[in-house]
Specification:
Blueprint: E1 13-16, H1 22-31, E2 35-38, H2 51-62, E3 68-71, H3 74-86, H4 90-98, E4 101-104, H5 107-115, H6 129-136, E5 145-150, H7 156-164, E6 168-173, H8 184-194, E7 200-203, H9 206-218, H10 222-231, E8 234-237, H11 240-247, E9 253-254, H12 261-276, E10 279-283, E11 286-291, E12 294-297, E13 300-302, H13 306-317, H14 325-331, H15 340-354, E14 359-362, E15 366-369
Parallel strand pairs: 1-2, 1-7, 3-4, 3-5, 5-6, 7-8, 8-9
Antiparallel strand pairs: 10-11, 11-12, 12-13, 14-15
Helix pairs in contact: 3-4, 3-5, 8-10, 9-11, 13-14, 13-15, 14-15
Length: about 375
């Protein structure tokens, strides 16, 4: 009789930061054998809608025609339309937004728009706000009135970037995200991350990343947490928007092609066992094995200083895919000179250690590993 194989996540401890749908996520992980540490980063209560501020912003939106409307989140749109309905302004708001060219950040905002009779002209496949801005590059925005619906975090830098191009920007903050009422579970998880006592931590919202980092800073363990995520603890995100919140900290993260909870858990099911065995890939005919900070090339140990090691970790998140100089710079250890020259030096040292043809330069885009196959 063949022995029953262990569940794919048996022996792994996974931190969960979600406040909502947590029973579903914990169930998915535990059925796969994982030990779960739950530490909600955000409040279990509904997102806080500041009625007075939202009413003022809505009156401003209604005061004059709009050229362009940027819809960011489905939950934010629904909350805004519900508030406008309470004030007797819903029909006016939908009519005003319907006059504008509408760009939506992702499928949830598209769904909320269409449910209220509005139609987006364009939405990026990536669900990243940066791609919305990229879509607008090259267009004349001088004098254009743009309304930006914010999510739980401020998009003031987006508004500033659009104003620099001459746009008249109105930001509508529908709700704000509130941190968890009891911070103790988060403090406990932070210690476990810093001490490498968890193998992975899942994130289903960008504000959860910010909340964890803020809490880590308050306990004096932020550098330990960043270092752990850069080397030993896997940051698992539900999608690219959540993953982008880690870029500020130079932390590599993974996310599935479809921004869905089940897809995130399925990805963990593959990634964690492979990482425990080490990452092995073929680069220009040679075998590179990475296990934590240990690097072997064709079975021989390769010594790397922190900067080229950080570059290698970043390039290995998606082997063969281009990583920009800016993203690589964000991954360099704290204290490294903050310029693209530092990236070039780290890449040069990495090439010297594992082969000059191992890291390819992609003109005007960045670098990638020359993976075989």
């Amino acid at each position: 009789m063949n022995p029953i194989p262990d569940p794919p996540l048996a022996g792994f401890r996974v931190g969960v930061t979600a406040a909502r749908k947590v029973e579903e996520q914990v169930g998915l992980l535990e059925r796969r054998g994982a030990e779960v540490v739950w530490a909600p980063a955000l409040s279990l209560e509904d997102n806080h809608v500041e009625e007075a501020h939202l009413r003022s912003a809505t009156d401003d939106v209604l005061s004059r025609p709009i050229d362009l409307f940027l819809a960011t989140t489905g939950i934010g749109l629904r909350a805004w339309f519900a508030a406008a309905d309470r004030w007797g302004l819903k029909d006016q708001l939908l009519a005003r937004l319907g006059e504008a060219e509408i760009l939506a950040r992702g499928p949830k905002s598209v769904g909320a728009l269409r449910a209220h009779g509005l139609r987006e002209l364009w939405a990026p496949a990536s669900e990243e706000f940066e791609d919305v801005l990229e879509h607008l590059r090259g267009r004349g925005l001088d004098g254009q009135r743009i309304v930006v619906q914010e999510h739980g975090q401020s998009l003031s830098m987006v508004a500033h970037a659009l104003r620099r191009r001459g746009a008249d920007v109105t930001s509508v903050a529908v709700y704000r995200v509130v941190a968890a009422e009891d911070p103790e579970p988060m403090f406990h998880l932070i210690d476990q991350i810093a001490d490498r006592e968890v193998h992975a931590v899942t994130f289903t919202a960008a504000p959860a990343v910010a909340a964890l980092m803020e809490a880590a800073g308050s306990t004096g363990r932020r550098e330990d947490v960043v270092s752990a995520f850069q080397a030993d603890v896997l940051a698992s995100c539900v999608g690219p928007v959540t993953a982008a919140a880690f870029e500020l900290w130079g932390v590599p993260s993974i996310f599935p092609e479809r921004s869905r909870l089940a897809a995130m858990i399925k990805q963990l099911e593959v990634e964690l066992p492979s990482r425990s065995a080490g990452t092995s890939i073929e680069i220009v005919g040679r075998t590179l094995l990475l296990h934590g900070d240990d690097v072997l090339l064709d079975g021989l140990e390769v010594k790397l200083s922190p900067a080229p090691l950080a570059v290698l970790h970043a390039l290995l998140v998606n082997p063969g895919h281009v990583v920009s100089r800016g993203d690589l710079l964000a991954h360099l250890p704290s204290g490294t000179a903050g310029s693209e020259h530092a990236v070039e030096m780290a890449v040069a040292r990495l090439r010297s250690a594992i082969g000059t043809r191992s890291v390819q330069t992609v003109v005007k885009r960045g670098y990638r590993l020359a993976v075989s196959g």
